[in-house]
Amino acid sequence: MDKNKIMIDYLLKNNFIDERIAKAMEEIKREYFIEGPLKESSYIDLPLPIGFGQTISAPSIVGIMMKELDVKEGINVLEIGTGSGWQTALLGKLVGENGKVFSIERIKELAEKARQRISEIKIKNIVIKTGDGTQGWPENAPYDRIIVSASAPEIPKPLLEQLKNGGKMIIPIGVSYWQDLILVEKDGTGKIRMKNLLPVMFVPLVGKFGYPEMEKN
């Protein structure tokens, strides 16, 4: 029984993903990005802990975000929150050889693990750095797409500025236990339109334009 195929069929049946995302998920298996006993739960549609108070998002949420973002071949994507690297690797497949994924992870250990995993599966169009994702990555801006995998009290201004005219961003916004998954679209003149997609639950986006880092005891 191929658990990955069962998961992908479930995601397709419920319209969480399209055929391009399904193909990427066939090649980039979620279990490779999960460690220890939790590997057994890789294909359950739930978020799972990856250490340092962070999680790998549920497959349905990863699928919905990438589908709504309409990730095309040959574009440049900025990802805020590399985490385990699974979504990063999927994005790398979706943009293809002529596209590029720039991913920022605040936690050095997670960034290093993700970089190693992605190197091992030989995806070469991804660059990962450690830093404050709320400030974006201005050196490589503007971006066709921005995907944020942590919740902010409001959309960080630098990310809006670094989104290309005609581009899209998806980000969880809210200050309570549940947040709203927001699709942001910038038209050709730079005008912003926002659409509320569904309630979600993400870890906080920590940084200058997000939440302050909690003091360690």
Description of the molecule:
With 217 residues, the chain is of the alpha/beta class. The protein has a domain at 66-200: Vaccinia Virus protein VP39 (Rossmann fold, 3-Layer(aba) Sandwich). It is 28% helix and 26% strand. The chain has helices spanning 3-13, 19-27, 59-69, 86-95, 108-120, 157-162, and strands spanning 48-51, 54-56, 76-80, 100-105, 126-130, 143-148, 163-173, 179-186, 192-200. The strands form 2 sheets. It has a 7-stranded mixed sheet with strand order 5-4-3-6-7-8-9. It has a two-stranded antiparallel sheet with strand order 1-2. A hairpin with a 5-residue loop joins β7 and β8 (179-186). The chain starts with a helix and ends in a 17-residue tail after the last strand. The mean pLDDT is 96.
Index terms:
217 residues, alpha/beta, seven-stranded mixed β-sheet, 6 helices, 28% helix
Helix fraction bin: 25-40%
Per CATH, which architecture of one domain? 3-Layer(aba) Sandwich
Strand order of the largest sheet: 5-4-3-6-7-8-9
CATH topology of one domain: Rossmann fold
Q: Which range does the strand content fall in?
A: 25-35%
The Cα radius of gyration reads 16 Å
Q: Structural class, from secondary structure content?
A: alpha/beta
> Alpha-carbon distance between the termini?
46 Å
Q: How would the global form be characterised?
A: globular
The CATH class assignment of one domain is Alpha Beta
